[in-house]
Amino acid sequence: MYFVFDLFYSSYSDKLLEVLNRNKKVSEHTSENLMNAVIEKSYQMISLSL
User: pTM of the full predicted structure?
Assistant: First the structure.
């Protein structure tokens, strides 16, 4: 489990790139794109559990 902003530390840079590359770009800001990925993933998990 990763916290969203942990991915901005250099030790997580590979994981950050992996997450950003497999999700859509909705903003010019990396933090916003990352948060969008988290929100979409959460929504998918909730939808599957209903």
Answer: 0.70
